[in-house]
Amino acid sequence: MSLDSDTSSQGGDHRNFRQITRDRLLFEMLRSTRKNSKSTWKVLIMDKFTVKIMSYACKMADITEEGVSLVEDLYKRRQPLPSLDAIYFIQPTKENIVMFLSDMSGRSPLYKKAYVFFSSPVHKELVAQIKKDSSVLPRIGALSEMNLEYFAIDSQGFTTDHERALEELFSENAEGSHKYNACLNTMATRISTVFASMREFPRVHYRVAKTINASTMTTLRDLVPTKLAAGVWNCLAKYKTTIPEFPQTETCELLIVDRSIDQIAPIIHEWTYDAMCHDLLCLDGNKYVHEVPSKNGPATEKKEVLLEDHDPVWLELRHAHIADASERLHDKMTNFVSKNKAAQLHQARNGGEVSTRDLQKMVQALPQYSDQIDKLSLHVEIAGKLNNIIREQCLRDVGQLEQDLVFGDAGTKELINFLRTQLGVSRENKLRLLMIYAALNPEKFESDKSAKLMQLAGLSADDMIAVNNMRCLCGPDTKKSSGGGFTLKFDVHKQKKQAHRKERTGEESAWALSRFYPVLEELIEKLSKGELPKDEYNCMNDPSPSFHGLPTSSSVRTSPAHSMRSRRTGGTWARPRGSDDGYSSDSVLKHASSDFKKLGQRIFVFVIGGATRSELCAAHKLSSKLKREVILGSSSLDDPPQFITKLKLMSVEEELTLDDLQI
């Protein structure tokens, strides 16, 4: 089992979100069993969900260091080890309790003693079931609620593993279904365990349900943020009386929104290194497979690498613009050659530049440089692949039109002209363009115009389901939708379409095609200032007298006027030298290494229906800008192909998996 994560320390003795999660699992759970245990080594038993919790937060070496010699699956047949103690980290379900009891009951239990840790609050009936078995009771060394049931996907991000939240909460047949309530209840519990881990009690803000007029009934779909906020609030209220040292007054902010706040962010091409890797390279999670020179002869062999925080090059470049990342990698490679005598000698011999493959060969002769050059050559290869795909798929032209549509610099005429003339653009990219257009202009799809656009783009009926469902994210549709999509009454605002974004003053783009920003970025800034629109966002709790996270003014200020700059065009990645827009890798590293102890109260944001990498990037950027650690949570973290597949699934009647539909 591969368990990898970032375990490095960040500034002072303050721990980031993932580090706190890791430390609770290693010290509060695993290490705590040492006190009363005579067994030096233990077996760690987990279910399919808790093993993922552990793998996102800890390395296998960390677990071994805490005295775990073997990691086992609760549901697989296991060898009896009666001389060893076992640690069970499991969800509090009936099925898991049955499996645990079968392991530990009777005359021949599998293990000597059991230390049981539940990932979330356990029902009294299940505890009673355990206590009923007189043979098991003396063999239990601990029975505890960890209240840790989320995936720490990033130092500032988590998911609740609800990959089908869009379908289960917002589709036509979601209302009144068992899945609707089950999804919301589980999501609320898992979000609450984040605050149990962090020992934080939030002020819970949420997007309110909107109706068109007094005669329109609010749908269950529109009430999802309200219901989730209430569910989280109920769990937190229980924690105040059941968890020792849980805060009794507000210590941070939580904002709950759904995907309707920004339908464009999950679809648009995002130009950061991280987003491009996941969008264009068909990664398996964070796993990238590449070819390296074989140690035995001239052939190559495949090697799997994880693009995660333990890779310093990835950590530095992941939020950088792809052009910036490419430039920095070239500089790093040049710098390596200039400081490495063997590389210089090779260069002099060959009378030219040292290629990545040459450097890889040199590694075999210079083992002390192996790790450094391995990582460097890996990212040079990845950046090269990305730049080739950008060129082959005409993505600069696609990206330019996407951003022009979003900022109101282009409309129907430009879109039609693009579809007619750009024959080299793939069907997938035309689909994404139409989805952005549909979010901005839903009314244009109420006539036969949608069929004409579909024909012009060469899209299938299956593709148009995604376009229509995207259109329905914008608001109510009183007319029958054309093209086979259903009506998703998602964000029932009087204004039916996604508004054009405005240029952000004082944040001029350092690179071409980087003026797009997620709506969530503005919302977080408004929350930090206490300026969330009162007619769109409510709060479950009024601030206590001791709460100082917000300004006292309750007025809703209007944002300053935005200047409309001339849009960037041209074939080169131009930027002003020395600029720092918060996204550049130097800036990210500067802020990441700053002393977190000086930061103000944390801000948590939860997006129902899937978050994007641009939103996760914004959380990192805003942490330094606002001097408050921003933690982004969501039901899932989606790249554009995944999100489009999920939109299609919302119209499918029969039970399918995400793998059954591809864009």
Automatic annotation (TrEMBL):
Disordered as annotated region, ranges: 542-586
Domain of life of the organism encoding this protein: Eukaryota
InterPro entries in alphabetical order: Sec-1-like_dom1, Sec-1-like_dom3a, Sec1-like, Sec1-like_dom2, Sec1-like_sf
Cited SUPFAM superfamilies: Sec1/munc18-like (SM) proteins (SSF56815)
Signal peptide: none
One Pfam short name: Sec1
Amino acid composition bias (Polar residues), ranges on this chain: 551-561
Protein family according to the UniProt entry: Belongs to the STXBP/unc-18/SEC1 family.
Name the record gives this protein: SNARE-interacting protein KEULE
Organism: Urochloa decumbens
